[in-house]
Design a protein that fits this description.
By secondary structure, this protein is of the alpha+beta class. Helix content is about 20%, strand content about 25%. It is built from three helices and seven strands, in the order αββββααβββ. The strands form two sheets. Strands 3, 4, 5, 6 and 7 form a five-stranded antiparallel β-sheet that branches. The chain has a two-stranded antiparallel ribbon with strand order 1-2. A hairpin with a 6-residue loop joins β3 (about 55) and β4.
């Protein structure tokens, strides 16, 4: 599914052609990611655009996915709500204080990059 940052094998950064390498996939991680897809609904915002929970930006150069790490137990409906918080996308002191009230200990972000016909995510970084 190319959601792992390790799958980003750019030709310009290597001495050989990466397309000949065997694909190293962690099937269990992919199954967990597929199971989490219902937590990231796609919602129409106009007649020609959509938004996905947890994602910000538009186009191939400024699209990011942001997710929280929370402490304690959350019910499934609470997880859906937390993933959709707009404050997760902001990098301000007020937004960090706001999400901390929900038990969120850290927020991570990864950029979606497009390389030819493939899309990958960069390694996650704390916000």
């Amino acid at each position: 599914m190319r959601w792992d940052a390790e799958d980003d094998r750019r030709y310009a950064l290597r001495w050989d052609e990466p397309s000949k390498d065997r694909v190293r996939t962690v099937r269990g991680a992919n199954l967990l990611a597929i199971a989490a897809l219902p937590f990231f609904p796609v919602i129409p915002t106009s007649s020609s655009t959509v938004a996905t929970a947890g994602f910000s930006g538009r186009g191939s150069r400024d699209t990011f996915i942001t997710w929280p790490i929370w402490t304690g137990w959350l019910a499934l409906d609470a997880v859906r709500s937390v993933l959709g918080l707009k404050e997760l996308q902001r990098r301000s002191e007020t937004s960090f204080k706001f999400v901390a009230m929900y038990g969120i200990a850290a927020v991570y972000r990864s950029q979606r990059v497009t390389l030819g016909k493939y899309r990958n995510f960069t390694p996650a970084a704390p916000m």
